[in-house]
């Protein structure tokens, strides 16, 4: 099992109502990546959004900057909004990132949650699903073939015909890792299994809600003839860890409430502490607590879903950088060793 962090680069407003500048958030993200690399974490992911309240509309560029500041940590997206991107451009960018980083690039491809990129790049939101499925198929073909032929017909969406088109440069890795990011749609789990690609799942609620969906993924993969080793499952959760559970919850609550109220969006004061405590309690999707408490919940998710990756979503709300960095340090120094020890014993 490997471990990492990811962030969307939210530009949450401070108590005065002023949003954090994108330059500050990008600088903090590069510093967090260096810290995660030094502390021995395995992967960092950056999300793609096309809104004024997020810093990363081009995460691959920030990942390239991180590549030059780190030594070993793997570099991925969380997610690349493939529905409104050109698969050839995506592959070339990440092949270049793979070269720059010495073979550390990955892609988590997803359909995206927000609709802003569809009108921005001239796509019809009504083709949300078809665009993604066709573009993912084309992206996977580009991974396997240095020259690609692609039909343009009534069944295909969002890409013109290609005739023995060169897809260059080629990455350092023999097969650039491409994951499929999913929410809670059963058909997405089935299609990920049929394609034989690893699955990344955002756990915004407890893992018990995803047992049947992950089983659908593995069953579809097995029926399509894919080996179990190719059907990896990774999960990510909103995350904050401190020395004690009480300290973690007391520190994080006001900042997370600001995040929820600004990003859902909800009126101020409509995310009370009792809701936060319920989300952070047993069966909830919010991982906030002491190192032992958080480790126990990661282990429980691993045992239930058979996960091989966990990524903590950090940088949420108005939490200052120093507290975020301390949480990442505790994650690497205490939580990860506890989980690894438990898995080794099992």
Report on the structure:
There is one protein chain. This protein has 346 residues and is α/β, with parallel strands linked by helices. The protein is 44% helix and 16% strand. The strands form 2 sheets. Strands 1, 2, 3, 4, 5, 8, 9, 10, 11 and 12 form a 10-stranded parallel beta sheet that branches. It has a two-stranded antiparallel ribbon with strand order 6-7. α7 links the parallel β9 and β10. α1 packs parallel to α11, α6 runs parallel beside α7 and α10 packs across α11. The longest helix has 25 residues. It is globular and about 60 Å long. It starts with a strand and ends with a helix. The mean pLDDT is 94.
């Amino acid at each position: 099992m490997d471990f990492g962090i990811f962030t969307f680069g939210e530009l949450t407003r401070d108590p005065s109502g002023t949003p954090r500048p994108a330059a500050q958030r990008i600088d903090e993200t590069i510093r967090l990546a260096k810290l995660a690399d030094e502390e021995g974490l395995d992967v960092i992911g950056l999300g793609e959004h096309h809104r004024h309240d997020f810093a990363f509309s081009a995460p691959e560029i920030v990942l390239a900057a991180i590549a030059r500041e780190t030594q070993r940590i793997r570099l991925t997206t969380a997610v690349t909004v493939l529905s409104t991107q050109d698969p050839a451009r995506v592959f070339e960018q990440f092949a270049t990132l793979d070269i720059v980083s010495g073979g550390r690039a990955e892609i988590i491809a997803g359909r995206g949650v927000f609709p802003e990129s569809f009108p921005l790049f001239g796509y019809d939101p009504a083709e949300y699903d078809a665009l993604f499925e066709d573009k993912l198929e084309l992206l996977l073909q580009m991974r396997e073939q240095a020259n690609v032929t692609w039909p343009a017909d009534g069944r295909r969406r969002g890409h013109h015909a290609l005739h023995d088109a060169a897809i260059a440069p080629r990455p350092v890795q023999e097969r650039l890792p491409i994951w499929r990011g999913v929410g809670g749609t059963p058909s997405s789990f089935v299609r990920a299994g049929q394609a034989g690609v690893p699955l990344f799942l955002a756990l915004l609620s407890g893992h018990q809600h995803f047992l049947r969906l992950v089983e659908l993924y593995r069953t579809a993969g097995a029926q399509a003839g894919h080996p179990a080793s190719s059907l990896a499952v990774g999960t990510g959760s909103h995350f904050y860890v401190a020395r004690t559970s009480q300290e973690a919850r007391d520190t994080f609550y006001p900042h997370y409430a600001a995040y929820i109220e600004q990003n859902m969006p909800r009126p101020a004061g409509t995310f009370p502490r009792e809701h936060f405590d319920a989300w952070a309690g047993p069966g909830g999707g919010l991982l906030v607590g002491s190192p032992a408490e958080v480790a126990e919940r990661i282990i429980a998710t691993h045992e239930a879903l058979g996960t091989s990756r966990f990524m903590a979503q950090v940088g949420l709300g108005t939490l200052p950088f120093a507290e975020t960095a301390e949480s990442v340090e505790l994650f690497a120094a205490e939580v990860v060793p506890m989980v690894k020890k438990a898995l080794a014993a099992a």
